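$ ./design --mode recover --in tokens.txt
reading tokens...
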């Protein structure tokens, strides 16, 4: 099971980004359900359809603070981000949201050659090249 101690040890090392990939929840942290939040924003009736960048920013611009690890954004249920129609550059999003805070991604998958395979699916990948990250 992933722990805060592993994240703290990682955060104390040098690195441009702080990305933590975890296959399980870390009980002490609060998570944003990306799929639910994005769907909720997109489903609002009577509201002009926002750009997808506006939608993901509304979701990702929220953050939490933990006394041990500091400012962080913990996300789960990120399958919607891989929707081809959205044309999201997940490398850039992960880069942007892991510079000033710890980005904790709870998702099943594996990393091979700096590529994260979401649910081990070759169609759903994130290029992690150049992004500091750990898997816990």
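writing sequence...
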């Amino acid at each position: 099971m992933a722990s805060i101690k592993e994240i703290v040890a990682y955060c104390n090392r040098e690195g441009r980004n702080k990305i933590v990939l975890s296959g399980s929840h870390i009980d002490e942290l609060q998570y944003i359900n990306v799929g639910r939040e994005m769907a909720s924003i997109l489903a609002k009736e009577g509201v002009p359809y926002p750009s997808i960048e506006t939608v993901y920013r509304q979701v990702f611009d929220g953050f939490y603070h933990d006394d041990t690890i500091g400012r962080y954004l913990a996300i789960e249920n990120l399958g919607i981000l891989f929707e081809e129609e959205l044309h999201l550059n997940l490398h850039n999003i992960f880069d942007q949201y892991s510079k000033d805070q710890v980005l904790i991604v709870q998702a099943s998958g594996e990393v091979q050659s700096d590529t994260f395979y979401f649910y081990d699916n070759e169609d759903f990948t994130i290029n992690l090249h150049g992004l500091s990250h750990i898997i816990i």
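exit 0
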